[in-house]
Design brief:
The complex is a heterodimer of chains A (250) and B (204). Chain A has two domains: 106 residues, Ubiquitin-like (UB roll); 135 residues, Orthogonal Bundle (Fumarate Reductase Iron-sulfur Protein, Chain B, domain 2), CATH 1.10.1060.10. Helices cover 32% and strands 13% of the residues of chain A. Chain A contains eight helices and seven strands; from the N terminus they run ββαβββββααααααα. In chain A, a hairpin with an 8-residue loop joins β1 and β2. Chain B is mainly α and 204 residues long. Chain B is globular. The chains are: A alpha+beta (250), B mainly alpha (204).
């Protein structure tokens, strides 16, 4: 069977470490039914031999949940940033080209450092503060209508696809990117979270905040969770405008 | 200026200045130009009205030159920050984003040339700013083509700027409203282009 079996052709952008230059390496992976990018990368890991038949180092990547909810396995697959776990081999154009999300610093091969997204979430205070020295009791209720759209925003898994697609997120700009902006809308909509609305909006009016958005609207098209990012950004624009009037006129 | 704490304020000022007063002035300017299609007399009369407004230097400085310079120079800062990726993401709004920056740069160069010929030279050499001055400038194909490219760039930049202005100030939040204003801005592009091109052709 071995000589005649179907193979999948991969062209993968690799990088030895954060300092070295990227290069591409090609692989021929034996086909199995229902494979995704992760299972193909696991095959390479089991048998790290490239298309020329040379022994090489296994490819390094990140993945956790394998069901498109953790956001760890984002990579650029055939030119589009998406999750490797939900990218099925049977649905992709061949040869399959894979590269890391270059908006982020590459650590090795397909592994990138997305800590800037966590830093941004801290900057905009994307949480509901409930800790106290005594029981604060139940907060106000959230209207069902709000809960429905807020749930959609809560699906954000900090995967970084929107930052990768955004032309304004790069080394020349301090823009925090679409994902953390949408989280501000989520926590400002929460009845308890709303009590810290001003703090979050103040962060958005700071350096690299919401005005760095240039409305290319790529983010909403690449979001694997279908989050209405551009609606969130526009809604926050309204909140920010009203807040700045409040700040100035009192 | 760009990475400091005042980024938000400058960006908002940049956004606002593009519409008021720069965009509004440009629209008035295009309408005044259109009178050239009614004949030399009409144009000279309309242009004369603009030139003979009271407090002319004050108006020019605060309604035209200061906002225009700020919008242009700060706009170059903004344009330099983006890494255009229309090749990878070829959707319409990404193209509009790219064109907004391209037309802004073209408009910047065009307006410097235009102000040099029709304002600086007029102020310092005593030439009259009338129909014949403009007709002299666009009497060859190259200048006329450059003028048409410049005018179309300014108009595109303005109408697309209205579309993004409505988003960045929080007027159009829903995708539906953004779609409708996109159609309106396209219609406005056609209308203003018709006015601008017919006017410049009246001088040629």
């Amino acid at each position: 069977m071995s000589g005649t079996e179907k193979k999948i052709h991969f062209i993968i952008t690799r990088q030895k470490d954060s300092q070295s230059a990227p290069y591409t390496e090609e692989f021929m992976v034996p086909y199995r039914a229902n494979m995704n990018i992760i299972s193909a990368l696991m095959e390479i890991q089991k048998n790290p031999v490239n298309a020329k038949g040379e022994k090489t180092t296994p490819i390094i990547w990140e993945s956790v949940c394998l069901e498109e909810v953790c956001g760890a396995c984002s990579m650029v697959i055939n030119g589009k940033p998406r999750q490797a776990c939900s990218s099925l081999i049977d649905q992709l154009e061949h040869p399959i080209r894979i590269s890391p999300l270059v908006t982020f610093p590459v650590i090795r091969d397909l592994t990138v450092d997305r800590s800037r997204m966590f830093d941004a979430l801290k900057k905009v205070k994307a949480w509901v503060p409930i800790d106290g020295t005594y029981d604060l009791g139940p907060g106000p209720r959230m209207p069902e209508k709000t809960r429905q759209w807020a749930y959609e925003l809560s699906k954000c898994m900090t995967c970084g696809c929107c930052l990768e697609a955004c032309p304004n997120v790069n080394e020349n700009s301090s823009f925090i990117g679409p994902a953390p902006l949408s989280q501000v809308r989520l926590f400002n909509a929460h009845p308890t979270g709303e009590m810290h609305k001003e703090d979050r909006l103040a962060a958005l009016m700071g350096d690299g905040g919401i005005t760095s958005c240039g409305n290319s609207q790529n983010c909403v098209l690449v979001c694997p969770k279908g989050i209405p990012l551009t609606t969130s950004i526009a809604a926050l624009n309204r909140q920010v405008t009203l807040q700045s009037f409040k700040n100035f006129f009192g | 200026m760009e990475r400091g704490n005042h980024q938000h304020f400058y960006r908002k000022l940049h956004s606002l200045s593009g519409i008021i007063p720069v965009g509004v002035f440009m629209t008035v300017h295009l309408f005044v130009n259109y009178t050239a299609t009614w004949g030399i007399e009409s144009y000279n009369k309309a242009a004369g009205f603009m030139v003979n407004l009271p407090f002319k230097y004050f108006l020019e400085l605060f309604i035209i030159f200061i906002p225009l310079l700020f919008h242009g120079i700060y706009g170059i800062f903004i344009a330099r920050q983006s890494k255009n990726n229309v090749k990878r993401y070829g959707n319409l709004r990404n193209w509009k984003f790219f064109l907004q920056r391209m037309t802004g740069l073209i408009a910047f160069v065009f307006i410097i040339w235009h102000v040099w010929e029709t304002k600086v030279q007029v102020e310092f050499s005593g030439v009259e700013a009338d129909y014949h001055l403009m007709a002299g400038i666009v009497d060859n194909v190259i200048s006329l083509s450059l003028y048409i490219i410049g005018i179309l760039s300014c108009i595109y930049h303005f109408v697309n700027g209205i579309w993004t202005f409505l988003i960045t100030w929080g007027f159009t939040v829903s995708p539906q409203s953004q779609k409708v204003t996109q159609y309106i801005s396209f219609g406005l592009f056609i209308a203003l282009s018709f006015i601008g091109i017919r006017a410049i052709l009246a001088f040629a």
